[in-house]
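ok so heres the complex, two chains, lmk if somethin looks off
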Amino acid sequence: MYNYTIYCILGSFLITSSFELEQHAARKANLNRSLWPLKSSDSLKYSLKFQYTYSTAYFTLPVDHFGFANTDTYQMRYLYNMDYWDKNGGTILFYCGNEGDIEDFAINTGFMWDISKQMKAMVVFAEHRYYGKSLPYGDKSFKDAAHLGYLTAEQALADYAVFLTSFKATTVGAANSPVVAFGGSYGGMLAAWMRAKYPQIIIGALAASAPVLQFEGVTPCEAYNEIATKTFARYGSNCVENVRRSWEAMTDLYNSGASGQAYLKKAFNLCGDVKTADDLADLKGWLTGAWGNIVMVEYPYPADFLQHLPAWPVKGVCDNLQQPYWDSPSTLVTQISLAAQAFFNYSNSFSGSCFNTTSEPDTLGADQGWGFQACSEMIMPMCADNKNDMFEVSAWDLDSYVKECAKTYGIVPKPNWIMTNFLGVNVTGATNIIFSNGLLDPWHGGGVLRSYPEQNITAIIIPNGAHHLDLRGHNAADPVDVIAARDMEIGIITQWIADYQREH
Amino acid sequence: MYNYTIYCILGSFLITSSFELEQHAARKANLNRSLWPLKSSDSLKYSLKFQYTYSTAYFTLPVDHFGFANTDTYQMRYLYNMDYWDKNGGTILFYCGNEGDIEDFAINTGFMWDISKQMKAMVVFAEHRYYGKSLPYGDKSFKDAAHLGYLTAEQALADYAVFLTSFKATTVGAANSPVVAFGGSYGGMLAAWMRAKYPQIIIGALAASAPVLQFEGVTPCEAYNEIATKTFARYGSNCVENVRRSWEAMTDLYNSGASGQAYLKKAFNLCGDVKTADDLADLKGWLTGAWGNIVMVEYPYPADFLQHLPAWPVKGVCDNLQQPYWDSPSTLVTQISLAAQAFFNYSNSFSGSCFNTTSEPDTLGADQGWGFQACSEMIMPMCADNKNDMFEVSAWDLDSYVKECAKTYGIVPKPNWIMTNFLGVNVTGATNIIFSNGLLDPWHGGGVLRSYPEQNITAIIIPNGAHHLDLRGHNAADPVDVIAARDMEIGIITQWIADYQREH
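and the predicted structre for the whole thing:
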């Protein structure tokens, strides 16, 4: 058993080429898979097509909504487009920004743009505090707990509530506009919680791929890795079995001494050596991150993020793992390396000369924000057993996780707070929420998969969908199930709006 | 127009004999009628019959639930009684403590005790942070904004949510117990908001006399004083007219010079002189407080708080004001003084030799807590016009109120936050709430008076009820409408419990 950290693409879809985001300290501390976000990097945007135009503005908000000890304020960035908006009380489609630069969400949430015309709606994207340009304390925002301590989901939701109240009051024609909240991944959690906590401000929420149940004592820690394994298994049992056995193969090579260690370095084209247990753990963590993430972006069409991933990228990985290679550790490692290339260097998109499996935390990035959130209140248990999943054995140890988080950030983590404060296990306290989940996406293990008709809570399952595929813009290669999901979402949202307008 | 402050008995029912609670600074600052609580004084309890027995315990909670900059914890006091509790998942009747010592609420919320037997329920009373013995920073709790800043309704509700979650998990037989929240006045607001924000933790709320709409831009500032005047008018139009004209009479006497000023002092048996405009304002504020408060305790039976008020105490006041006395300022003032005695010194219960109309803020009392709350987020507009009401003209000036609050406490008041954060004008975002209101109680002006059957939100009007009469224990003198109200409340709560048990 070793320690690893996974890089999860929760919402932002963005993967940095060098996977710089791993927090070394956290990894060393036996922190298991967490929702590390990926740093938004300007270099990533070169290939993104800005299909949408929007205005950018800032809104002044208190740093602390729930107390009066801190009277500081900060500027929250938001984007908006009113091209199709009906100024006679038209609908506001509101994106609950999550852990990243809000522009990334604006350009990757095509569904909102697509429906804005038919709904005569304006679109508004609010940036989550401590991400992008919405830094409460500028370059000191991540300095210490005194500055970081206001980075919580509750404060972010209060930001949105106060902002929306003022925005509606000050925007001509918007005073009585219904607001529908949208969000994917952590943003989807925020959208659902927004409806739960501020039903008087938003009329309903589309919470896409929102693992609101991925918390202590609710969702088994195995869920994520088992689902990821199933998504791999679509391309054959050998693919899974090769990955499952690769961890031991790497250990064998490492244990065989200098030649085996050199082999590992060369096979994976690593910049650094594999000469210590930590080096080996870094390598495994790097691969674990790859396998754990690629299933999230198992989209049916080429996606232009970073490595120019092809349609169904997991297939590209598994194409290299179709035979049983496990008789020979070196052969298996070579094939695993080829599989990794299909992710890290598809069509030679990787511009570096070698891969880094580690990096120091950057001083002002999205990863720092999520690192803190994952250590304070967004603690999502993850584990692997190498039997029901293909990952190396990794136990979930809440106590040591919390202990290390406390040490790293100088805070008191609250592992039970999210389930206490928000929807809880029984989500029926809220109404008017769509929970959509793609079955290829490992996060659906912590999602709401059943409907509660009395509360107008509708679960939509997208069998061929990866991480919030439904929130992406229309694509000719969309499978029928995501088209149907979006149609259903449009129908439900239209009904919410009609209900609202009848009552107002 | 002069400045006055009223002493409101919001929930605690307790009035100190010397009315020590006025915050001189606030009064001077043109703060109009606010929800000043009354300090809980040990001297008040001498005559209270402790009809109920309970155990006392403490629970450790974070000072800040919504952030991580402050890692302090504190001890919240709570009281409980399990005499009638069904240990097989019986119901928990939970009182959301408001601005005062929780023991006062425990002994003055007889309804919960009365129904605990038939419901086989346990009763639990949680003390609101910064009141009673639940002081987060001990005797430094009221020192400054850095210490006081965590005194908010949101933090108190989070206290209750975290406490209940743990309490249920650690109390044998309680893991799946339904919890029903109760509260009167501000405590009723908390109960309603508790259901709105934590529906997964409480199954429903009885919010008695809860002015959840008494906020900026929602309820007209005139409401309270107009209703108080109507309650006086039950005992004749001369009663109202005498009070209405008394303010000018007092001014006339004051303006007439030394003899008139001496007359005022003697007539009201004041300890201090009436030689300055401030003295006169103090006197008027003292009387305004009396008239504004007595309608809240217009109970149908003698109540044993402080002055041993008789049944229907407003009648006792108005008995002195049945004739038109306004032709002579001195005669009118004499009668007003007699009327005031009926409140301040009913059956010679007042033990002092003279009355103080002012006092300095005490260093560690409930008034300090509520003074801060009324200045930070619980800003409730009040005004009077001396036409539709009997009070002296007093305008509501939000800007100067907020300015003075900011100056007094070194904070940034948030007059719109409560309506943004909680139910809002349209309370239909929540379900399972009973809003009960007595029509004699001026606070019903800011209450929810209509039902929303689809949300199972039921408004119960109690025509002969004063401030949360329904929460008080059974009394032989109860009017039929409060008996009916309680029966209806029992029926609704029983249904909530049945619904919960069917689903769990």
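quick notes: Chain A has 16 helices and eight strands. thats all i got rn
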